[in-house]
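Memo to structure team: turn this sequence into structure tokens by end of day. - J.P.
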Amino acid sequence: MKSKLTLLFASFVLLMASCAAPATSARTKVKLPMGYIANVQYAPFYVAAERGYFAAAGIDLEFDYKFETDGVKLVAAGELPFAVVSGEQVVLARNQGLPVKYVAQWYHAYPIAVIAPAASAIKTPADLKGKTVGLPGLFGATYVGWRAFLAANGLSEADVKQQEIGFTQAAALQAGKVDAVVGYVNNEPIVLEQNGFPVKVFAVSDYANMVANGLLTSESVIKQNPQLVKGMVGALMKGLADTVKDPDAAMQISTKYVDGLKVDDAIQKKVLLASVKLMQPSGGLRPGETTAAAWANTQKVLLGMGQVKTEADVNTFFTNEFLP
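Reply from structure team:
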């Protein structure tokens, strides 16, 4: 009898434990197109993944670094819920009728810059007149940033000698093939300085308020699964805050996600620190927040370039409703 009572009691305890323990809900698998190879600049995403912020939001995240992945079109078609994009891509997509929306800014400063040798006669934007300027090509964020820089300084493409040089900016400038180049403020200047080649950097963000890199989703995902969007944005913002607060820890974590990255890599640590500066908001904005004014400026540049033909309501481009 005693053994039967013991068995019954044990069964009761197991039953109560099973009732008390909450069921683990299945996570939503999310493949996230990054638009670039694995890099320390993505530290906020890596930190959020490593510290379980995405998992806590019910998200099983996979980073997608395939160059051929067109995140904007896949998100618009409902094949993927999110993508990492630059602000001008959103304006271009909406102009094509694609139902996408930007929900969180990862870089608060547009990361493009015009870079010239420190020893050259180029001391101000006006000094670029008549000079040869190298660009990867007449496309993408570098070209949009370049056009925004020209417009903000009363210059035009006719004032300079543009040269398409591919992604060889650092080498071309150091070899004297061009007088200046257009690149990323957290890339080429660091490489050049590390090579003992001092440079003068004209950051586009010092002259034009543009929407930079961030997180894109679709109107259908916002409508059908707002909790997923809130969770994704919230996790990224936690990772961003941690990265800004402790870049050393972010560097350590990034070594787990970037093949070949070493924690003592001096160049990549400088890339991270330069990226951290881009991540920090100014003007009283919350982390991740964008403004109608920045979207209007971005659209104005694209209208001036002829890349969009009609002016749209900038409020259709973005929402800040999912930010913490």
